[in-house]
Write a structure and sequence with these properties.
Layout lengths: L19 H18 L5 H8 L3 H7 L12 H15 L2
Helix pairs in contact: 1-2, 2-3
C-alpha cells in the first residue's frame, strides 16, 4: 500500500475537531468520491480507496451530493430510445 503525507495547519479544519484517524478517513473518502465523480475510477476502485465495501461507498455518495449513477442525460436518453427500438415502440 502507498502512503501520502499531507502537511496541515495545527488548528482544526472547519468547525469540527477530528483525530488524525478521522481526518485520514475523511481525506480518503473525499479523494475517492471526487475521483469517482470525475470518472477517473470505477465505483469498486473508489470504494477500495475509501476503505469501504462498494455498496457502502455508493450509499455514502449522497452525503457529498454525488450521484451513484455516472451517466449523462444524453446517454440516458440514448439508452431509453435504444430500449424502445428493441421493443418496437
Amino acid at each position: 500500500m502507498k502512503s501520502i503525507t499531507l502537511e496541515l495547519p495545527d488548528r482544526p479544519l472547519g468547525d469540527v475537531e477530528m483525530t488524525d484517524a478521522q481526518l485520514t478517513e475523511e481525506f480518503r473518502m473525499l479523494a475517492a468520491v471526487k475521483l469517482y465523480e470525475l470518472g477517473r475510477v470505477s465505483s469498486g476502485r473508489a470504494a477500495e480507496l475509501a476503505g469501504l465495501p462498494r455498496v457502502a461507498f455508493l450509499d455514502r455518495l449522497g452525503r457529498y451530493n454525488v450521484s451513484p449513477f455516472q451517466i449523462t442525460p444524453e446517454e440516458l436518453k440514448a439508452e431509453v430510445e435504444g430500449l424502445r427500438a428493441d421493443l418496437g415502440q
